[in-house]
Amino acid sequence: MLKIYNSLTRKVEEFTPLNSDEVKMYTCGPTVYDYASIGNFRTYTVADVLYRTLRFNGYKVKYVMNLTDVGHLTGDNQGDADTGEDRMEKGAKREGKTAWQIADFYSKAFLSDFKKLNLSQPTLFARATDHIKEQVELIKNLESKGLTYRIDDGIYFDIKKFEEATGKKYGQLSDLDEIKEGARVSKNLQKKDPRDFALWKLSNNPGERHMEWESPWGIGFPGWHLECSAMSMKYLGESFDIHAGGEDLKQIHHPNEIAQSEGATGKLFVKYWLHVRFLLVEGKKMSKSLGNFYTVSDVEKKKINPIALRYLYLNAHYQDPLNFTWEALESAQNTLSNLYSIAREIKNENESERKTLSEEKMQKIDSFRQDFISSINDNLNAPKALAVLWAVVKSNIPSSDKLDLMYLFDEVLGLKIAEISSAGAEIPQKILSLNAQRDEFRKKGDYLNADKLRKEIELKGYKIIDTREGSRILKA
């Protein structure tokens, strides 16, 4: 039975879908005004592991992720997402392009990085600018229920009216009292309550913005929070199972989604909320100002396989902060390379027939399988699941069964073990012979000749990984 921590109830719960036929899941995706960071991709990787785990448990899953290409203002950094400059417009000024060109370029960059990390393709990537009509209709719905008001810069959601109308308290997800109780300082003095948020922002000078639309309230653009409600309800229904995102979103963005969605429908919006802790860089928050903002491209520039980054993510539980260092990533790369090399060796053994298994080994194989299932179903305990994978690798069960388990576990872990072990796996005999000679030199303590052979092997396009069990050859 799958169990996950629900941010809404603040406890680990058994997962029971609203509809037994299909699980419906939504993840808050990137604002496509710049490259997504490796911090962003930790969240998307955890969401991918959740998606894979659901599938592993036999569920059919409808999975939607948004691409925010309008309305996310820079004031979000200061805790007020209704102030500042639109991030898309800011990106356009930075690069001398239109906001539409920025959205197109960075959406493609994100999708490319998404693929490099072997993240499962959602059922749909939903762009905010493709759903202006749905967002306008949602505002009109809220307006008809008396949950909106107009001030100089736009149409706002009325938190107090929402609480009065529904009998629900705003901010159930948040653990910040100033959010829940309305003590937050607002930079917009016209707002009735500091917690109120923009549904539609009016253009100061219509025609100047790259992205603006006609609406019943005037020319403008949707507020950032609105898109996720409009798009998720369009594709997943007024109530759905799981909403995932980074831990920063549970303070304001997700409470706003809940308020406007439940204000519009009178129904429970989402049953389970999952939030992923931040990725730290050498103990500090990632930011461009600190010079520690890294992307998947930065990883590749250091000749590190992006899947090694995925492996690093899996080494920490999603509810724990993960500290990124280049040394840790290089270690993950070496460990992953070792895993691939072992998988290749097992694959190349090419056992034509399975050995007759003793009762003891049959029990061991079943125990490994059950240990993995219980680990990943225990609130996505990926570190423990990895430990089970390595226990299999080091075990004395037959190679064919070992490989079967590795492939099975990788349906959740997503480390591309089957692909790597099957494609281009064979190492030429000449290279293997050179490495065998090198091993002999190392055993004799003749490191000078061993290093010469290492260089010769590397010049031929191969990489050597020295481990306690011996050296392994990989295609560079």
CATH superfamily of the largest domain: HUPs
- Unreliable stretches covering 5 or more consecutive residues: none
> What does the largest sheet look like?
5 strands, parallel
Give the number of domains.
3
State the CATH architecture of the largest domain: 3-Layer(aba) Sandwich
- Strand content of the residues, in percent? 15-25%
CATH topology of the largest domain: Rossmann fold
The secondary structure category is: alpha/beta
Give the neighbour order of strands across the main sheet.
Answer: 5-4-3-10-11
How many alpha or pi helices? 17
CATH C-level name of the largest domain: Alpha Beta
**What's the overall geometry?**
elongated
Percent helix: 40-55%
Strand tally, please? 16
- What's the N-to-C terminus distance? 41 Å
**For the residues shown, what is the average pLDDT?**
91
Alpha carbon gyration radius: 26 Å
Topology diagram in text:
Blueprint: E1 3-6, E2 11-14, E3 23-27, H1 38-56, E4 61-67, H2 87-95, H3 99-116, E5 124-127, H4 132-144, E6 148-151, E7 154-157, H5 159-166, H6 177-181, E8 197-202, E9 220-222, H7 224-236, E10 240-246, H8 253-265, E11 270-276, E12 279-281, E13 284-285, H9 296-301, H10 306-314, E14 322-324, H11 326-349, H12 359-377, H13 382-393, H14 399-413, H15 417-422, H16 429-443, H17 447-459, E15 462-467, E16 470-475
Parallel strand pairs: 3-4, 3-10, 4-5, 10-11, 12-14
Antiparallel strand pairs: 1-2, 6-7, 7-8, 8-9, 12-13, 15-16
Helix pairs in contact: 1-10, 2-3, 4-7, 5-8, 7-8, 10-11, 11-14, 12-13, 12-14, 13-14, 16-17
